[in-house]
Each structure stands twice: as structure tokens, then as C-alpha cells.
């Protein structure tokens, strides 16, 4: 039975974005350590579960010039995995592509780093299955090369073949980020594709699974919900099947409150939004909203006022806004029947005159401006707009 963790887009040490300077002191430590703690939790889970491999398909790091803390965190984690008999497969993506060329970095022997060209490494699981891993590291940030075309077909002499791929769906060789098509990926015959690049968990295909694991920890208020990685195991049918593991340290979430009559009412709702997990919350108010809230929002003071409150539970508002409904007037014809709308257009001689320019022969202009001609136009419009003919003119 093969088992491994598929952890894309760790972005170790990357700071959160979209936070105000006056971050609540209770949150500072959790926020600063969130990506480190999520990474460590993932490593501990791999060791506890005695998986065979840990797979990082790009953007393990956020960029070049990594700190001593990041280097120490990675070195210790890889040593711990090595001691537990777990092998690591690592490719670099569009954020950490420069790490491929950094000097002086030396990982333990259990870590295999893919080069800039597509390559395959064959390793053995604890149970002795032969597992092939195929991948590459980005040569530059954009990576517009058709990388998938250089992946070999599934090898016949292995039990499983797994593809590591950091990229996005698109036109191969034209679009950036190693664009690929799902059909081309399926044609390779691999047993599992461990994808990276988008910070959203998504399964593109089953049997075989082609999946994005998302990132280990949300980094801004667009990256909502639980984050983590996939535990991939051999099913009873012999297929490699992913199961989500949650390693969220700080949750990004959003709520919508309808009809909030006052600031006190907003405070009451927020204080009842109990949670045990540190949560960075975006709040949108709709419907009937109190004048004091509208005024504070217009002055740009609403968020600061909410952040000045002392919540007993670990919630920190990062965005508070009043949603202003856009009122659109119905066009005059919206209340008309179909026949009335067509007739209204035909009665506008200016409209017809604009269409029947001097380039149209005089006889035709006179005909279509006559009652008989207008009726002919109406009949033709009725046929076209009601779809009475099954062809295009």
C-alpha cells in the first residue's frame, strides 16, 4: 500500500497580506508563525502516519533570499522525515524558481530536488512497491514552455507513476505558468497528478486523480476556509485516492449580516460569532443598515471602530463594509409586450432614417418608410427574434 502527502504551495514564512498595522496583540504570534506551524503540523502528521513520501509540487518557498529561520525549519523537518524513513520529492515553482540555483544549500539524502528539465526518479515504498515520480523545476517565473509534452508516458516496469506539476490550465506553449490541457495530462497514463500553483483545493479529474491540494495556510482574505494538504493512499481498488487533511492555523473567513440597525447591533452579532480557532474575519452588511454605520463607513472609520472592541473569542475583523445595492431603472420596453416593443421601434422614424442612409437607393428608403414597408420589417423582426428560422442570416 502506497501512501504520501501531497502539499502544494506552502510558501513557508510568507507574511499575510491585507492586515492593518494595529493587529490585535493576541493575533501577532499566531499570524507570524502560521505558515511555520502549518508546515510543522504537516511534517508531524507524515511521521505519525508513517507515509512513504512527501511531495511538494512547487512554491515550498515564497522566493529567494530566505531567512535563517526558514532554512533551519526546512533542514530540521527534512532530517526528521529522513529519520522516520520518509522520502521527499521537491520541485520549484514560479515563486521559488531561483532556489534551484542558490549555492550552499545541502539537503539530506532523502530529499530529491527536480532540475529544470523533466526527469523521473524511481523509489521504493515501505512495502516494496516501485513508484516513479516525474517532475521539473521552473527555469523562470513565467514558464511559457510546453512542459507537459516532455513528460514521458507511464513506465511499464513500475507499480505507480506520479506526476508533479506546478502550473495552470490553458494553452500549452502560449499561456504562462506551464499551461497544460487536461486531456494531454490524461494521455500520459499516470496514476496520480500532484498539482501546485493555485491556492485552492480542486480535483480536476478522478480515476486517475488530477488534483490541486491548495495551500497549507491561507495568506489573505481571498483564501478562505480550511487549508491543508492531501493524504494520498492506495484504495481497495488499487487506485491512488486523496483525502484532505486540515492544517489551518489561522482561519480567513467572511460573514454577511442582513439588516443591521445600529453599531451596537453589529457588535452583538460579532460577539456571538464564537470560534475556538484564531479567525481573521471579513464582514459585509446588507439590507437595512443603520445611519451610524453608514456614516462611519463613509468616513473610513468603521473598521477601526470595530477593531477597537475587545472580543473574548479569537476573532479579528480585517474588513467591515456596508454593501450598497445598486438600483437600476427598468428600460421603457421592459413592461411592454413583444409586439408593442417592435411597434415602438417602427414608429420612431428617426431610427429608421438613421438605418436607411443615403447609400440605400431612394426607392427602397421610401418603401421601408411606408406603412407597407414597416409591416414587412415588423414581420421579419418577429421571425428573427422569436427564433422562427433555424439558420443564421
TrEMBL record:
Q: Which InterPro entries would you find in this protein's record?
A: Calcineurin-like_PHP, DNA_Repair-Maintenance_Comp, Metallo-depent_PP-like, Mre11_N, Pesterase_YhaO
Name the domain of life this protein comes from.
Bacteria
Pfam families the record matches: Metallophos
Whether Hydrolase counts among this entry's keywords is yes
Swiss-Prot/TrEMBL keywords: Hydrolase
| Keyword Hydrolase carried by entry | yes
**Sequence ranges assigned to domain Calcineurin-like phosphoesterase in this UniProt record:** 3-200
This chain's protein is named Metallophosphoesterase
Amino acid at each position: 500500500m502506497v501512501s504520501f502527502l501531497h502539499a502544494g504551495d506552502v510558501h513557508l514564512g510568507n507574511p499575510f497580506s491585507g492586515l492593518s498595522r494595529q493587529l490585535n496583540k493576541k493575533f501577532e504570534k499566531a499570524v507570524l508563525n502560521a505558515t511555520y506551524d502549518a508546515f510543522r503540523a504537516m511534517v508531524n502528521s507524515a511521521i505519525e502516519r508513517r507515509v512513504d513520501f512527501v511531495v511538494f509540487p512547487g512554491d515550498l518557498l515564497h522566493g529567494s533570499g530566505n531567512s535563517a529561520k526558514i532554512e533551519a525549519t526546512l533542514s530540521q523537518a527534512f532530517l526528521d522525515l529522513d529519520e522516520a524513513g520518509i522520502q521527499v520529492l521537491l520541485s520549484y515553482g514560479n515563486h521559488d524558481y531561483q532556489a534551484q540555483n542558490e549555492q550552499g544549500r545541502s539537503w539530506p539524502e532523502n530529499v530529491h530536488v527536480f532540475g529544470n528539465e523533466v526527469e523521473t526518479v524511481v523509489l521504493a515504498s515501505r512495502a516494496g512497491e516501485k513508484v516513479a515520480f516525474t517532475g521539473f523545476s521552473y527555469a523562470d517565473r513565467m514558464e511559457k514552455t510546453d512542459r507537459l509534452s516532455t513528460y514521458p508516458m507511464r513506465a511499464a516496469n513500475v507499480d505507480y507513476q506520479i506526476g508533479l506539476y506546478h502550473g495552470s490550465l490553458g494553452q500549452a506553449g502560449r499561456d504562462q505558468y506551464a499551461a497544460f490541457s487536461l486531456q494531454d495530462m490524461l494521455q500520459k497514463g499516470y496514476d496520480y497528478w500532484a498539482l501546485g500553483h493555485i491556492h485552492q483545493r480542486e480535483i480536476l479529474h478522478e480515476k486517475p486523480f488530477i488534483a490541486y491540494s491548495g495551500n497549507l495556510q491561507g495568506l489573505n482574505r481571498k483564501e478562505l476556509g480550511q487549508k491543508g494538504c492531501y493524504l494520498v493512499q492506495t484504495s481497495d481498488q488499487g487506485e491512488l485516492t486523496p483525502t484532505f487533511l486540515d492544517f489551518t492555523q489561522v482561519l480567513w473567513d467572511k460573514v454577511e449580516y442582513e439588516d443591521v440597525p445600529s453599531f451596537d447591533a453589529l457588535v452583538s452579532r460579532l460577539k456571538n460569532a464564537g470560534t475556538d480557532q484564531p479567525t481573521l474575519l471579513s464582514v459585509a452588511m446588507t439590507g437595512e443598515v443603520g445611519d451610524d454605520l453608514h456614516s462611519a463607513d463613509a468616513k473610513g472609520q468603521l473598521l477601526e471602530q470595530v477593531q477597537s472592541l475587545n472580543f473574548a473569542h479569537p476573532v479579528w475583523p480585517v474588513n467591515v463594509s456596508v454593501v450598497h445595492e445598486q438600483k437600476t431603472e427598468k428600460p421603457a420596453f421592459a413592461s411592454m409586450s413583444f409586439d408593442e416593443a417592435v411597434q415602438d421601434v417602427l414608429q420612431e422614424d428617426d431610427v429608421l432614417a438613421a438605418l436607411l442612409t443615403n447609400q440605400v437607393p431612394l426607392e427602397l428608403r421610401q418603401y421601408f418608410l411606408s406603412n407597407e414597408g414597416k409591416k414587412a420589417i415588423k414581420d421579419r423582426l418577429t421571425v428573427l427574434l422569436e427564433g422562427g428560422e433555424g439558420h443564421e442570416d
